[in-house]
Every structure is written in structure tokens, then in C-alpha cells.
Amino acid sequence: MSELLAYIIRGIPVGCVFALMATGIVLTYKTSGVFNLAFGAQAFVSAAVYYDLVINRSWPSLAALAVAVGVIGPLLGLLLDHLLYRHLRSAGTLPKLVVSLGLLVAIPQIVKLWFGSGSAFNPPGVIRSNYVLRFGEYSLDTNQLVTIAITAAAAGGLTLLFRATNLGLRMRAVVESARMAELNGVNAERVSSISWMLSSFFAGLAGVLLAPLFAQVSEVHFFTLLVAALAAAAFGRLSSIPLTLLGGLLLGVLQAMLAGYLPSDSVLAQGLRPSLPFLALFLLLLFWPGLRQPREVADPLGGVDPPPPAPPAVIRDRALTLATRGVAVVFVIGSSVLTLTVFDAFWVSVVTKGVILGAIFLSFVILTGLTGQISLCQATFAAVGAFTVARLVAETGVSVLAALFAGAAVAALVGALIALPALRLGGIYLALATLAFALMFEYVVRPLDWVSGGFRPPRVPRPRIGAVDFSSDRAFFVLALAVLALAALLVFAWKRGATGRMLDAVRGSEIAASSVGINPFARKVLAFSLSAGIAGFGGGLLASFEGRVNYDANFTYFFGLVWVVLVVTLGSRSIQAAITAGVSFMVFPRLLELAGIPQSLSQGIAFILFGLGAVTYAKHPEGIVEARTRASLQWTMRKLARRGERAAGRPPHPEDTVAAVGVGAGQ
User: Fold this and answer.
1) pLDDT less than 50: residues of the chain
2) Neighbour count for residue 488 (Cβ, 10 Å)
3) 272-303: buried (b, 16+ CB within 10 Å) or exposed (e) per residue?
């Protein structure tokens, strides 16, 4: 009993940090309607500033705390509100989630660019004191006591804010409808700014308190903190601060108990302990009451917004459609000829990997583009396909081509098994469930020898079809291009076929789709499974090209987050955008190196630009490629209309110009 009590006491300070972070997430969600996945990145900013001021610049701890938490934290929240989220106030769940994902990708890279990529070891605590509070055989040091006190004060203060103050009432009113709140005399912009500043203050406070619990200040640790905080927030159903506080404490205590009771060299200790936050989040999302199909916060005055712009395919006539496709074909053929005849071995390899990623990214067109669902584990499905190919070839000796189809089938099966429980959640909870699965795969499943092959993963040969050998890089590029073309045709046929139209109906209104005999759940499971299969086939193809499954360089959960941000930013409904995203992911960092940026910085700068590109989603939810295509098309049609008017010998009529550019069709 005394041993159990010791573990509970040891876990309470850690649980308090989880709870403090989760409380900030709940605060953001309740006062802005944004489920802020960038919260951990905001905590990382304050922790990095605190470390730099104390260790590198020798500031006093309290002065550094005041700047890192009291100035930098609220200022960052104010900037996010003014530059981004204020313009997303009436947007749906998907745009807000995409923007927060972009910030989650970009902010840590910006911090590393600013403070350097060197390791920040032994982060200091807030109070540098040797005082220890002892009661019997148990003890708590000064920093642990400060953490408990701050967490209790924060939870009590926020509960009081929402239940007993006009500001708390105004915050909730602005979330429901900023325009209706303004009609009642509420300054929605000021209230929103206060909410974000307060939320970011909590993020910074949690970041500074968390840092001493780890050996160094690293964005990886803060992502782990974010997942633990998400689990605690889910325990509180994103609304109850007392339940959120309890969830964080329970998670911290459970971690301490596992650390104490499990032998350090056991499989459970090595797998379960580091993955506990991910497992807790996944199980809570699936089984905790009140989290299935949550009510989306919708502005009652949202109907006064103008309709979205019409897609280019609706505006342009048949001649322009054929011309556009002809230009695309010429561009692809020209690029392929250059790759095969001009590029050296390095660039052939880069472009080939980009083409393979383009095929993988087509899976987002099916899932996100057609169903409107966000999956954060597409990189994991690609890894499943890659590991399946590697193990089948090594253990059974089957051909690589047969193993590729088997890998796609296994990935599709895993996708269906994940979709069956996860798709019933919907919205942000589906995204979190897929993120938890990706993390569990990376930390629990992937290290198993029967999955990855241990320290010496098996080699994956390149395929051979009849007398055609794809062992050379240029020959493999042709194979990758053929796979991409077939995958694009498959997705195009799926979009234009009956199933694609059914998914469009489901995306528009599940109730309306059900009323005409469409089973929304079955259709979404099918789309999820097919998208996982495409990703799995591409993952196996990438492993074959590289000769082995290079998980850390290709399939980590972080790469999966970048993939989502990049594809959705460029256009999740567009086959062209998905292919562009795949090639850009590989080519853009290399172009930065050609521009003189060191190789050690090029990847980080590319991720910063990819992440910040997500902010354009607020203005162009259809994607940058679609928006630029529409703008070019409208410019072309305006020119054609004016040329036709001049040829007819009369000035253009304004109504004709409006009709020509398609404004009446959707702008």
C-alpha cells in the first residue's frame, strides 16, 4: 500500500502538467471553437525561450518566466488570432483543423531555425531551490509543489471564469455566433483576442513546467505532452474543466504506476509505457460516452455567407477542357523525357520518389476529397504496405509484384478495421483517432521484429515483369510513372462513377443520402479502405525503389502530418494537386539547396513553408491549385470574350463579361 501511495504522489505533478495543458486546449475549444493541435508547438516556443534566457543569457528564473510565459505566450496567441483564426470564425471543422495542423508542422521548425538545432540539455525548473516537503516516507520538491499549486489555481480560476463572469459568457457566445453576439453589443474581436491570449498563456506555462521532466527541450517531448493532454481533454469531453483535470491526474498517476510495477526490461514496459498517452487517447475516443458524433458548433447566421466559387470544370467549356488536358499531357511527357535523358542519377532518384509519393497522395483525394474526412495515418498505411512487401519477399520468396498487391490488400484490411470504429466518431475525433493509431504503430508495433525485421530489416528487391527488369533507376522511374497513371485513372473513375457520386451526396448531407437509399457508413468505410490500399501499394513501391523499408526517412507520423497539410492546402479534391504535392515534397527541399541553403536547413525550411501554406485554406478551401486554375481560366475567358467583342465591332457588354467568367455560376 505504501508503494502504491508513493507512485501516486510521484505521478501527481506529471498529471498536473498534463491537466494544465489539457485545460488550455479545452479553453481554446470552448472560447474559439478551434481544436488547437498546435497547442504543443506553442508550449515548445515558451519552453525554448525560457531555456535560452536562463541557460544561454543567464537571466534570473522569475524574469525569464515572466517573459517566456507572460509576454511571449499571450503575444503568440494574439498573433494567431489576428492573422489566422479570426478569419476562420465561421468556418467548419475541417478548415480550422487543417490550419492548426499546418502550425503544428511549421512552428517547431521556426523555433529550431531561430534558436538553432543544437540539443538543449537539462532544462531548468522554475524555482531553483533544494527545499523538499516531506510527509513520512514521501516527499515533493519545490518545482513539483509549484506545478500542483499552479494547476489547482488555473482549474479553479477557469471554472469560475465560465460560471460566474460576464467575460466567460461572452466567450461562449462568440463561439456560437460572433455576428449575433455583436448585434447584442459584444465586441467579438476583443473577446476572441482575450481568449487566445489566455489560452496561449496556459500553453506557455505548461511548456515551462514540463521541460524539467525531460532530459532536453525537444519538440518530440512536447508532442507527447500534446497527445497526453488530448487524452485528458477527451476524458473531459472538451467541455468540463474538472473532468479534464481529473483525466490529466489519472494519466500521470497511471504512468508512474507502470514505471514502478513493470520491470524495466520487459516488453510491456518498453512498449506500453511510452505509448500510454496514445493508447489512452485511442480507447477514450472509441469508448468514452459523449464523444460519438459530437454536435458541431455552427453559426446560425452562416447562411448569409456567399456560396463557394464554382470549380473550373463547371466554368470552362469543352474546348478549354480539352486544351487544359492537352497542356497537362504535354507537360508530363516533357518532364518525363527530361528525367530520362537529361537529369543525373541524383535527380532521377528525387523525381522517382516524388512520383511514388504522388501515387500515395492520391489516397487523400478519395478520403478527404470525396468524403470530407481527415486521416492522419496515411503514412502508417504506406508503412504497412512496405513492411508487408519486405516480409513476404524475405520469408516466402514471392515475386515483388505479387507482394506489392498483397501489401495493398493488407493495408486496405487494416484501414477497414480502423475505419469501422473510428468513422462513427466523425469530425475532429476521427482525426485524433487516426493520429493515435499512427503513434501506436510507430512506438509499439513497428519495433517488433516480426514487423520490421529488427535491427537488420530485410532487403526489398526491385520488380521484374517477364523479360523487363526494373533494376536501373531510369527503368524504375518508368514503372513509377505507369503506376501513378493507373492510380490516377482509378481515382478518376471512382470520382466520376456511381460510388463517387454517392460519396458526394454523403458529404453534402448524410441524412439526405440515407433518404434515397445510400448507406453513408458503408460508403465511407469503403473509401477509407481503398485509400489505405492505394497508400499501401505506394509504400511498398517506395520500399522496392530504395531497397529496404526506410521508415524513419519516409513513414513517421510527422511525415504523415506534413502530407495531410500539403495535399489539403494544394487541393484534396484534385488529382493534379495530389500529384503536384508528391513531387513538391521531394523536389522543393532540393531546389532550396540549389539556391544556396545548407542541406541541414533545407528540409526544415520546406516544412515551414508547407505548414504556413495551410493558412491559405481559410481563403481557398478548394486548394491553391484549384484557385490558381480558376483564376487563370477566368483571365483566359475574359480575354476571349473581349477578343470576340472586338471582332464583332461592338464594345463588350458587362453582363456578357460576367457570364463569360462564370461569376453567375458560383461567385
Assistant:
1) 294-295, 303, 655-667
2) 18
3) bbebbbbbbbbebbbebeebeebeebebeeee
Please name the residue that has the C-alpha cell 457508413: 521
**Grid cell listed for 79:** 498573433
- Asked whether the beta carbons of 652 and 643 are under 8 A apart, the reply is no
Q: What is the pLDDT of residues 340-394, one digit of tens each?
A: 888 999 999 999 999 999 999 999 999 888 888 888 999 999 999 999 999 999 8
d(CA 411, CA 400): 16
Q: Match 453576439 to its residue by C-alpha cell.
A: 181
Q: Sign (positive/negative) of CA torsion 350, 351, 352, 355?
A: positive
Task: Report which of 328, 261, 16 is spatially closest to residue 144, judged by C-alpha positions.
Answer: 16
CB atoms within 10 A of CB 392: 22
Q: The cell 508503412 sits on which residue?
A: 383
Question: What's the length of the chain?
Answer: 667
DSSP states along 455-480: TSPPP-PPPEETTEE--SHHHHHHHH
Cell of 662: 462564370
Nearest to 34 by CA among 238, 183, 232: 238
Kind and range of the H or E element at 650?
none
For residues 171 and 195, the answer to whether their CB atoms sit within 8 Å is: yes
- Contacts of 152 by beta carbon, 8 Å cutoff, 6+ apart: 16
Check the CA dihedral 134-138-142-146 and report its sign.
negative
**Burial code of 162-186, b = ≥16 C-beta within 10 A, e = fewer?**
beeeeebbbbbbbbebbeebeeeeb
**Selection from 38, 37, 53, 47 nearest residue 69 by Cα:** 47
pLDDT of residue 529: 94
Joined grid coordinates for residue 511: 441524412
Of 511, 495, 493, 515, nearest in space to 503 by CA: 495
- Which SS3 state, helix, strand or coil, does residue 342 take? coil
- Which contiguous run of DSSP H or E holds residue 135? strand 132-135
Q: Please name the amino acid found at residue 518.
A: I
DSSP 8-state secondary structure symbol assigned to residue 518: -
The pairing of beta strand 138-141 with beta strand 132-135: antiparallel
For residue 640, how far is the Cα from the chain centroid? 42
- CA separation, residue 364 to residues 269, 373, 480 (Å): 36, 9, 18
Nearest-5° Cα angle at 562, 25 to 620? 80
Residue with cell 519477399: 393
pTM of the model: 0.86
Q: What is the DSSP string of 353-409?
A: HHHHHHHHHHHHIIIIIIH----S-HHHHHHHHHHHHHHHHHHH---HHHHHHHHHH
Alpha-carbon distances of 76 from 23, 45, 80, 191, rounded to whole Å:
18, 9, 6, 16
